[in-house]
C-alpha cells in the first residue's frame, strides 16, 4: 500500500470518527442497556425490589391487552396515513412538478407543514375540533365533541399526521419525478398512450425506487407517532400509540423494566418492518447503491 | 391552442389554490386565535372580530415561556452547529476519500435515521440520571446531534458529490497550495450545502417533542413545544387557548421565515440526499 493511500485511509477514519462515535454511543449502547433493563424487575418507586427476572417482563407486556390495543392503533394510524399520503403526495408532487403558474408559491406553502412544529399543528387541530373554539367541531354533528370519541379522535389524529407529512412525501416523490425522462413520456404520448397509461406504464416504474424509499421512511416515521396523540387526546379513549404507552410506563409509572421491554419490542417491530421493505420490495436504501464511488 | 392554454392555466391555478389552502388553514387558524380577545375566543370566526396583542404581551411576561424559548434557541443552535461540523467532516470523507468501513458508516447512519426514538427514551432516562445530565441542555443536545447526523451526512454527501473537484486541481496547477485551493475554491462551493443542512437540522431540533418531554423535568431545560403542552395561562383559572396560540405562533415564525427565504434550498436538500443517493 502506498503512503498516499495509507494517509487517505487515516484521514477518512479521522474525519468520520467523531460522528460515528456519537451515533454509536447514543444509540447502540442505550439499546443494549435497554435489553439488559428489560430482563429485570426495576421500578423506580420500589428500587429495592430490583432483580433479574429473565423474560417475565416480555410475558407481562405481550399478554397485556393495553399493549395490543396500542399496537393496533399504531398500525392503523401507520397504514392509513401512509396510504393516503402516498396518493395525496403523488398528486402534490405532480402539481409541484408540472404547475405553470405560481410554482414558487405552491412549493413554499407545501413546505410550511413540514417546517411547522408538530405540537403547534396539533394544537391548531385540537382547537379546530373543540366545540366552542373550533370551526370544525360543529361541522360533523351539531353538538358533538369529536376528540372525545374513539373513532373520530383516531380519524383526527390521522388527519393531523397526513397534513403534517404529506409535503415530505411529495418532495421525495418529486425528486423521483425529476428522474423520469421527458423524451420517454413524449414517445409514449406519440404512440397514443393515454395520461393514465403514461403514468402507470412509464412514470411509476421509473419512480419505483424513489417511491419505495419514501414509503419506507414514512412508514417507520408514522410508527413513531407521539406528539399528535399527546396533544390531541393524551391517549384517552384507547387512542394511545405504542410510543405513548412506553412513555407513560416510564414517566408516569417510573417502571424502567416494563418501559425498557416496550422500547425493545418497538425496536424489534421497526426492524421487522424495515427488513420486509428491504427484502421483499427490494427498496434501494439511499446510499446503498453507488455511495462511496467518486 | 390559445384556449387550451387558458383552460390549462385555470386548471393549474385551481389545483395550486387547493394546495395553498390545504397547507395554510391550520396555520391561519392558530394565528387568528392568537389575536382574539378572551371574549371572542369561542365565536368560531376565522377572522377575529376584535384584534388584540394581549396574548403576546401575556406570554412574554411569563418566565415559563421566555425561559423555554431561550432553552429552545440555545439547544437547537448548539446541536445544529455540532451536528453540521461533525456531519461535514464525515460527508467530506465519504464523498472524497477511499477507506475501509465507509459502507458500514453509511449503513449505520441509515439505521439511525429509521430508528424508533422512543426505544431510546427508557435507557437514556436512566443513563442520564446516573450521569447527572438528566434535565440539562447537554441531555437533549446529545440525542439531537445523534438523530441529526444521518440527515446531515446524507444531504451533505449529496451536495459534495455535485462539486466539480477538478477545480481544486486546477487551482493547485495555478500555484495555490492545498489549503488555499480548498479555502478559496471548494469551501465557497460547499457553503450553500452546509447552510441548507443547517436549516434542516435546526428544523428537526426545533420540532422535537418526545426527547424534550422525557428527558427534562423542570424549566431549566424544557423547550417550547413541551412548555406549550404544560402551559396553563397566567393564572390557573384562565383559559390558556389564546396564550398557547400566541406562543405557538411565536415559535412558528422562525420556521416560516426559513421556508420563505430558503425554499429552493430546502427542497434541494431534502430531495438530493434522499433519492439521488
UniProtKB/TrEMBL annotation, chain B:
Subcellular compartments: Cell membrane
Secretion signal, residue range per the UniProt entry: none
Membrane topology, as annotated: Multi-pass membrane protein
Record's keyword terms, sorted: Cell membrane, Membrane, Transmembrane, Transmembrane helix, Transport
Record field: transmembrane: 12-31, 68-92, 104-125, 137-160, 181-204, 243-262
GO CC terms, sorted: plasma membrane
One GO process term, biological-process aspect: transmembrane transport
Residues annotated as domain ABC transmembrane type-1: 69-262
Membrane as UniProt keyword: yes
InterPro entries for this protein: BP-dep_ABC_trans_perm (IPR050901), MetI-like (IPR000515), MetI-like_sf (IPR035906)
Parts forming coiled coils: none
Keyword ATP-binding part of the UniProt annotation: no
PANTHER family named among the record's database cross-references: INNER MEMBRANE ABC TRANSPORTER PERMEASE PROTEIN YCJP (PTHR32243:SF18), MALTOSE TRANSPORT SYSTEM PERMEASE-RELATED (PTHR32243)
Entry's family note: Belongs to the binding-protein-dependent transport system permease family.
Protein name: Carbohydrate ABC transporter membrane protein 2 (CUT1 family)
Organism: Paractinoplanes brasiliensis
Amino acid at each position: 500500500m502506498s503512503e498516499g493511500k495509507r494517509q487517505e485511509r487515516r484521514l477518512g477514519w479521522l474525519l468520520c470518527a467523531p460522528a460515528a462515535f456519537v451515533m454509536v454511543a447514543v444509540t447502540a449502547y442505550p439499546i443494549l442497556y435497554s435489553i439488559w433493563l428489560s430482563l429485570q424487575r426495576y421500578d423506580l418507586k420500589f428500587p429495592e425490589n430490583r432483580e433479574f427476572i429473565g423474560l417475565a417482563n416480555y410475558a407481562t407486556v405481550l399478554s397485556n391487552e393495553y399493549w395490543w390495543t396500542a399496537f393496533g392503533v399504531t398500525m392503523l394510524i401507520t397504514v392509513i396515513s401512509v396510504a393516503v399520503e402516498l396518493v395525496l403526495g403523488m398528486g402534490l408532487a405532480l402539481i409541484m412538478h408540472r404547475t405553470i403558474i405560481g410554482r414558487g408559491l405552491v412549493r413554499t406553502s407545501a413546505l410550511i407543514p413540514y417546517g411547522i412544529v408538530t405540537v403547534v399543528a396539533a394544537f391548531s387541530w385540537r382547537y379546530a375540533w373543540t366545540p366552542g373554539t373550533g370551526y370544525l367541531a360543529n361541522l360533523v354533528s351539531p353538538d358533538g365533541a369529536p376528540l372525545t370519541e374513539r373513532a373520530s379522535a383516531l380519524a383526527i389524529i390521522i388527519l393531523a399526521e397526513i397534513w403534517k407529512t404529506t409535503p415530505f412525501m411529495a418532495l421525495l416523490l418529486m425528486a423521483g419525478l425529476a428522474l423520469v425522462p421527458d423524451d420517454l413520456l413524449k414517445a409514449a404520448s406519440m404512440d397514443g398512450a393515454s395520461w393514465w397509461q403514461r403514468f402507470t406504464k412509464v412514470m411509476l416504474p421509473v419512480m419505483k425506487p424513489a417511491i419505495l424509499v419514501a414509503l419506507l421512511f414514512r412508514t417507520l416515521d408514522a410508527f413513531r407517532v407521539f406528539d399528535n396523540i399527546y396533544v390531541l387526546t393524551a391517549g384517552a379513549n384507547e387512542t394511545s400509540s405504542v410510543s405513548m404507552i412506553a412513555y407513560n410506563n416510564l414517566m408516569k409509572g417510573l417502571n424502567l423494566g416494563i418501559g425498557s421491554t416496550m422500547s425493545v419490542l418497538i425496536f424489534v417491530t421497526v426492524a421487522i418492518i424495515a427488513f420486509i421493505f428491504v427484502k421483499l420490495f427490494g427498496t434501494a436504501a439511499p446510499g446503498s447503491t453507488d455511495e462511496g464511488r467518486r | 391552442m390559445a384556449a387550451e392554454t387558458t383552460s390549462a392555466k385555470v386548471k393549474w391555478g385551481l389545483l395550486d389554490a387547493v394546495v395553498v389552502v390545504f397547507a395554510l388553514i391550520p396555520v391561519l387558524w392558530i394565528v387568528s386565535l392568537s389575536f382574539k380577545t378572551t371574549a371572542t375566543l369561542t365565536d368560531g370566526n376565522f377572522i377575529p372580530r376584535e384584534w388584540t396583542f394581549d396574548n403576546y404581551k401575556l406570554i412574554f411576561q411569563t418566565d415559563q415561556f421566555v425561559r423555554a424559548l431561550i432553552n429552545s434557541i440555545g439547544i437547537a443552535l448548539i446541536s445544529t452547529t455540532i451536528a453540521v461540523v461533525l456531519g461535514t467532516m464525515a460527508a467530506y470523507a465519504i464523498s472524497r476519500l477511499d477507506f475501509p468501513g465507509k459502507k458500514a458508516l453509511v449503513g449505520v447512519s441509515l439505521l439511525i435515521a429509521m430508528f424508533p426514538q422512543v426505544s431510546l427514551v427508557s435507557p437514556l432516562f436512566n443513563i442520564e440520571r446516573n450521569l447527572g445530565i438528566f434535565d440539562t441542555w447537554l441531555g437533549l443536545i446529545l440525542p439531537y446531534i445523534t438523530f441529526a447526523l444521518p440527515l446531515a451526512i446524507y444531504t451533505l454527501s449529496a451536495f459534495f458529490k455535485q462539486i466539480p473537484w477538478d477545480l481544486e486541481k486546477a487551482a493547485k496547477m495555478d500555484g495555490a497550495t492545498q489549503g488555499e485551493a480548498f479555502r478559496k475554491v471548494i469551501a465557497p462551493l460547499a457553503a450553500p450545502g452546509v447552510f441548507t443542512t443547517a436549516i434542516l437540522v435546526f428544523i428537526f431540533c426545533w420540532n422535537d417533542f418526545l426527547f424534550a418531554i422525557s428527558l427534562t423535568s423542570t424549566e431549566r431545560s424544557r423547550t417550547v413545544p413541551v412548555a406549550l403542552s404544560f402551559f396553563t395561562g397566567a393564572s390557573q383559572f384562565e383559559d390558556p387557548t389564546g396564550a398557547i396560540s400566541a406562543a405557538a405562533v411565536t415559535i412558528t415564525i422562525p420556521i416560516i421565515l426559513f421556508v420563505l427565504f430558503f425554499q429552493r434550498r430546502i427542497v434541494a436538500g431534502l430531495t438530493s440526499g434522499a433519492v439521488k443517493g
